[in-house]
Each structure stands twice: as structure tokens, then as C-alpha cells.
Amino acid sequence: IACSRFHQLLQTLDDRLLKIPSFSKLSPKSINQPSSFKLQYNLISIFYSIIHTLTLYCGLDNIRKYSSTEAYETLFHSSQVLSQDARYESTSEAMMSISSTTLDGQQLRQFSHVINTNTRYQSDLSTLLSSKRHSCHALLDALDICHAAYLQTQRKDKSIKRTKKKIEFYLSWCKDLDHDHIHTVVQEVQTWFQDWRCDDKNDCHLEELKLK
Length: 212
Description:
Helix content: 55-70%
Structural class: mainly alpha
Number of helices: 12
Shape: globular
């Protein structure tokens, strides 16, 4: 039964992906431009918000049943790409933006604590970036969150519709383009965490540093 359910899910995923418009049709002017190959950095922000939202609300099923509007707000505000149309030029820039968003008004001295907290998402983030199938699946989950919230608000919230279109744009890009150039981002994300993560043996508090 579990095996049958698994194949059913795969078939559903494939069916949904086949219905996604090709990126060349969705954005014909962008397909061959260098800027289109920087979208992977924006995806870091979107994937982080998806991971954070699904973790916070204990999965898509719970979101659909109990908290679709709250989950949408979390998804939307956890990514500056979705909420502010931010665009990044590097992995480091995207990761720093995620950390500043997570701080949510806290003092900069707590930055190291935020990095350590976000480390639990490192594996999930690397997994999504390293696989086209996982990338597409995650973006479909984000669309489902948007759709559930849209229905709950009785189709009155236009921002949800705009967010949905933006996610569909990145989904189309992920589905159609060669995923190989994203693989380097996985290593860059892991390196970034290693560079900024503090451990208990080291002094991680800026206020304790004796700068002269």
C-alpha cells in the first residue's frame, strides 16, 4: 500500500509538472539572457521560506486544514524575493538577506545565534538545490499554500495571486533549464554556513570582542 501511494504521488507530481508552461513561452525575452542564470540565487530565498513554513506548520496537510492564511503570510514575509521583489547576485548576498529577515528587528549581536538556528535548514536547503525534482516539488508545495490561502480569503487577496504568479515563474525556470549550474550553489551554501557558524568553544558575541 505504501509503495502504491508513493507511485501515486510521483504520478501526480509528473502530471502537474507537465501542465507548467515552458519558460521560453512564459518569458521569451529572458531565456537566453545572462540575468536569467542568476535566478538560482533568488531561489535560495524562496526555498528557505518554503522550508521554514512547512517546518513551522508541520507540513502541507496541516496548512490546508488549519492555518492556510497564516502559513501564506509566513511564506511571503520569510522571503524578500516574494515580499519585496529582491534580486541577488551571489549566494552570500542571498544568505545574508535570509539572516537579516530572520533577525526580525533583533540586535546585530544576535546574528551568530540566528546562523546557528538556521543551520538546521542547511541539509534541506542543499537537497532542494541539488535536485531538479525536489526543487519543482517544493515550489509546487508553495503554490498549494498560496492556493489554500486564496480560497480561505474567498479570492479577495490580490497579493496572493501575484505571489503565485512569481512562484510559477521560478517553477517554470527550474523545470526547463539545465540544473547543473545550480549545483555549485549547494557547495557555496554549505561553505557559507561553515564560515559563519559559531560553536560553544568560540566566542560568538560581538559585544565581548575586544577591538582596539
